[in-house]
Amino acid sequence: MLIWPDCIPCILRMSLGVARLAIRDDEGMRGFLQEVLRLSPFKGEDWNVTSPEVIREVWIIMQQLSGETDPLKGIKEEQNRQALELLPLAREQILGSHDPLEEAIKFAIAANSIDAMINPREATEGIFEILQGHGISPLEMRQFEERLRRARTVVYLGDNCGEIVFDRLLIETIRDRYELDVVFVTRTLSVLNDATLQDATSVGMGEVAEVAENGIPEPLPGTVLEKASSELKALMEEGDLIISKGGGNYDSLTEEEGLKGKVTFLFQAKCYPYCTLHRSPLGGLVLYNY
Predict the structure, then answer these.
(1) Whole-number pLDDT of residue 125
(2) Which DSSP helix (H) or strand (E) runs through 241?
(3) Rounded to an integer, what distance in angstroms lies between the CA atom of residue 172 and that of residue 23?
(4) How far, in Å, are 37, 105, 183, 241, 280 from residue 247 at the CA level?
(5) Sign (positive/negative) of CA torsion 151, 89, 98, 140?
(6) For 125, 132, 189, 276, which has the most beta carbons within 10 A of its beta carbon?
(7) Mean pLDDT in each 10-residue stretch from start to end of the chain (290 residues)?
(8) What is the distance in angstroms between the CA of the first residue and the CA of the last residue of the chain?
(9) C-beta separation of 77 from 124 below 8 A
(10) What pLDDT, on the 0 to 100 scale, is given for residue 197?
């Protein structure tokens, strides 16, 4: 999905919040903003670009001005810690539901609400509230189950810290029902609160899946295949099913026509473009078989 006009203020607001963690004086923040506003998407001159690609350029500016490569490291660790505290309760709710797979999917999508600048405790505890108010499309659910039945290998593209704890639960649930192998893919470089290999390993992802990096040598909060490692490209080509988490992966992979028929997107409808494209209420749970 290429950027909509709505994406510009959203990216700018998020960027300012993160930059204040790395650039701690007003003069530095003014310099940061001046550089960001020189980027062509912020001047309305380039609409042929995805949000993750814009965020990459903003992140590089922040790194150059502050010298910080991972200003959200402490927040990411806390997001994972808070989510792990909820793991037993979430697992109990999933196993006790009438359809554990659907419940695990709902948990995984609701956990996509754990964004970079949200208080870790509020974000993780809010997952249970989201579950009470939103469901997923029965038609998309049936189609996803059919994809799982046919699959032998699954490539699971992760997104945020905290969220990955609930991805682990979903993978557990899938493998309880279907005989298949799963490779969980993380970012190679830190960006926002996206999970790296170290983050995924710290929440026990290696117990339920093989864990690999995407090989993208840039702070890109998405999956642009032309920049990915040859190993990831081969995995995605040879895999029977790709499960893609979060908005960044959605934005970048819906521009990949060659993946149609084998990608299932799981994300929360957090904005007008997502709500419009998927006829979802704001905050709704989206399961979309691409």
Answers:
(1) 73
(2) strand 241-245
(3) 40
(4) 23, 16, 20, 18, 14
(5) negative
(6) 189
(7) 96 92 92 96 95 97 93 94 94 96 98 79 78 91 98 98 98 97 98 97 98 98 97 96 98 95 97 97 97
(8) 13
(9) no
(10) 98
The Cβ-side half-sphere exposure at 165, using a 13 Å CA radius, reads: 26
| CA atoms lying within 13 Å on the CB side of residue 221 | 25
pTM of the model: 0.95
Structure tokens at 58: 């903003």
Burial 8-21 (b: 16+ CB within 10 A, else e): bebbbebbbebbbb
* Burial class of 263 by CB neighbour count within 10 A (0 to 12, 13 to 18, 19+): buried
pLDDT the model gives residue 128: 86
Side-chain half-sphere of 55: how many Cα atoms within 13 Å? 30
Token couple for 191? 């960006």
To 10 degrees, the CA torsion angle through 257, 266, 181, 148?
A: -80
Question: Is 184 in contact with 200 (CB distance < 8 Å)?
Answer: yes
Q: Where are the domains of the chain?
A: 7-66, 73-289
4 secondary structure, DSSP code: P
Residues 6+ apart with CB under 8 A from 45: none
Output the six-digit token pair for 74.
Answer: 């402490």
Beta-carbon contacts of residue 199 (< 8 Å; ≥ 6 apart): 76, 80, 161, 164, 186
Fold of the CATH domain 73-289: Rossmann fold (3.40.50)
Are the CB atoms for 153 and 183 separated by under 8 Å? yes
Q: Kindly list the strands in the beta sheet with 241-245, ordered across the sheet, starting from the edge strand earlier in the chain.
A: 210-213, 181-186, 153-157, 241-245, 263-268, 285-289
Joined together, the tokens standing for residue 124 give 């993780």
| Residue 217 tokens, joined | 């040598």
Q: What phi, psi does 131 have (nearest 5°)?
A: -60, -35
| The token pair that represents 200 in the structure block | 């995924």
d(CA 1, CA 222): 11
Which helix (H) or strand (E) segment holds residue 91: the answer is helix 73-95
